[in-house]
Amino acid sequence: MVEAFTMPEYHAWPFFYTIQKNIDTRERQMKMWSDLILAFCKFKGVYQISLGELYGSDICNNAGINRRLSMDNLTRVAEWMQTNKFGEFTAESKESIFVYWRSLQEIAQAIHRWADSTGRIGSVEVILDLTDDSSNRNEIFY
Length: 142
Hints:
Elements: H1 23-44, E1 48-50, H2 51-56, E2 61-62, E3 67-68, H3 71-83, E4 87-89, E5 96-99, H4 104-117, H5 127-131
Antiparallel strand pairs: 1-5, 2-3, 4-5
Helix pairs in contact: 1-3
């Protein structure tokens, strides 16, 4: 049986799908959208996702309450994520975003621990050294 992504309770709130005008409320709302997108990407095990895929998924649509986040507002959420270092657009077209469901600092610390434990501090390493070695499978950067 394939496990399904579980939506948070706030996914069923109708006003969640309309970007709020009050600055404080909007900031909380953007953080909630960001958290939802990050959790979804972590569940799927992806670090990059297209806005089209998000828009077409149940993340941006709740048929039960007949509400959908518009593509324009999804782009605003992704822009907020980039501004707040939770993601970064893959290109100027803003069609896809790298999502940081692990902080860059957390990944850097894991790489440093790996380099220290394998005696590679001070040596020159490339991404392939991290990803081609099957003994790194359990590392978060693999």
